[in-house]
Amino acid sequence: MNSKQLFQNRIGNRHPEHLNMHQIGPGDLATSEWQQAGLTLPNLDRMHQYRLDRICALLKQQGLAGILLYDPINIRYATGTTNMQVWLLHNAGRYTYISAEGKVVLWEFDHCDFLADHSKVVSQIRPCISWFYFCAGSRIDEQVKKWAHEIYDVVLELGQGNKKIAVDKCNDEGIRELQHLGLSIENGEVIMELARAIKGEDEINAMRCAVHATDSAIAVMHSHLEPGISEQRLWSYLHAENIARGGEWIETRLLSSGPRCNPWYQECSGRVIQNGDLVGFDTDMIGAYGICVDTSRTWLCGDQAPTVEQKRIYQMAYDQIHINTELLREGITFKELTHKALQYDPLEYNHYSFLYHGVGLCDEAPGIYFKDAWDSYGYDGILEPGMVMCVESYVGHKQGGPGVKLENQVLITENGPEVLTLYPFESRLLEN
Q1: What is the SS3 assignment for 370?
Q2: Which among 330, 390, 404, 379 has a CA at the least distance from the CA of 355?
Q3: I need a labelling partner for 42 at 20 to 30 A (CA). Which of 27, 129, 168, 202 fits?
Q4: How far apart, in whole angstroms, are the C-alpha atoms of residue 48 and residue 279?
Q5: Which pLDDT does position 23 carry in this prediction?
Q6: What is the DSSP letter of 379?
Q7: CA-to-CA separations, 276 to 145, 221, 225, 432, in angstroms, rounded
Q8: Using CA atoms, how far apart are residues 405 and 49, in angstroms rounded to an integer?
Q9: How many CB atoms neighbour CB 345 within 10 A?
Q10: Which positions of the chain have pLDDT values less than 70?
Q11: Handedness of CA 118, 116, 289, 219 (dihedral sign)
């Protein structure tokens, strides 16, 4: 099949409109709330083209013919299309190849070719060759050879002989077979993290909408917080309201109450929340437009007055994210953030895994470490306008007692940090 046959046939393969297929979207509830709030909706076609252009620029910069993607989040970024995102995170049944010149071939899972008909950046859709064990069984070797030859042919045709490509995620059998055919393989995860780091205007508009939807979902969850409700039941309201506004899934179950708040990272359980308990949570939400909204708050349950210690720990966490937000200026290095940010004695207090991290379609690079982890894990870089960072705080005494988790999502602009997260803090826990 020559390139003319390969890429001029895309529109003709679209399914008839009477099948009533829809791109995943927010729906009337979310859009009416956004209109009422005066938010600008993103231009999705323009957003998808911006993302594809960023990938292609990096491929050309690295001298790569293209990139092969399996991670559903990377595929969404590159193509604007989705299909069973969570299932395909652990079943390698959908993949795409992006050439440095912007041609996009999408291999769809069984009988799912119509799902990407809305995309204006996808050049061609093919049926996938699934060679993970669930689909291939004892025929993995046979299927992986067919798969690799098809990939090889596409790379050569679109890359004009360039055999150097990047791959984000692939089992060893696939990498070995591609290399056997003569392709040179580089780490595609690096390309995609760099591409996703700088958000365009439409991505930022999409994120503002997703944050607003998340704040609305949090408010519903908050309204159900009362003594006697279980952690799991309370958490379920966040899921329901996310889905009602076009959101997709939540990556963790990080909600805990009372003594389960310290140390952090216990996921929600059947524990019944008591009057006077602190309740902390981290949304980790893949919300509207596939945008990750990463918000943490800690609330006081019921009408019991907070203790002195609850207020002290809460104030420490509150001070930490506000002081550390002010450091988020264009041009500051990751190392400077690590060493300038407000941190509490790690021998006395439990803290979170990161001081800051990037966010977009999921938690993204960079990860900014605490001083005590810099020598082991820290890596440098600089903040640029268009990056979005989450500012994290968790504070809990190592001897036990209350623990508080807070987090805001912050846009880096030429004029300084802009806090996107608008959900209020717990005024009853603030000392002043």
Answers
A1: coil
A2: 390
A3: 168
A4: 38
A5: 61
A6: -
A7: 62, 17, 12, 20
A8: 37
A9: 9
A10: 1-24, 432
A11: positive
Rounded-to-integer distance, Cα 301 and Cα 253, Å: 19
CB 288 within 8 A of CB 209: yes
Sign of the CA dihedral with 378 first, then 341, 351, and 320 last: negative
Contact between 342 and 323 (Cβ < 8 Å): yes
* Sign (positive or negative) of CA dihedral 71, 77, 55, 118: positive
Q: Tokens 């652990």 — which residue? A: 90
3-state secondary structure 55-119: HHHHHHHCCCCEEEECCHHHHHHHHCCCCCHHHHHCCCCCEEEEECCCCEEEEECCCCHHHHCCC
91 phi and psi, to 5 degrees?
-135, 115
Q: Are 354 and 380 in contact (CB under 8 A)?
A: no
* Structure token pair of residue 376: 């082991």
How high is the pLDDT of residue 114? 85
Q: Report CA torsion sign: 190, 191, 192, 196.
A: positive
Contact, 79 vs 44, CB < 8 A?
no
DSSP string, 347-364: TTEE--S-SEEEESSSEE
Mapped onto helix, strand or coil, the DSSP state of residue 13 is helix
In this prediction, residue 137 carries a pLDDT of 87
- Rounded to whole angstroms, the Cα distance separating 275 from 19 reads 52
pLDDT value at position 432? Answer: 65
What is the Rg, in whole angstroms, of the alpha carbon atoms belonging to the chain?
A: 23
How far is it, in rounded angstroms, from Cα 5 to Cα 82? Answer: 25
Q: What is the pLDDT of residue 6?
A: 41
pLDDT of 13 reads 47
Q: What is the pLDDT of residue 4?
A: 36
Query: Residue 420 is which amino acid?
Result: L
Assign residue 228 a region: left if phi > 0, alpha if psi is -120 to 50, beta otherwise? left
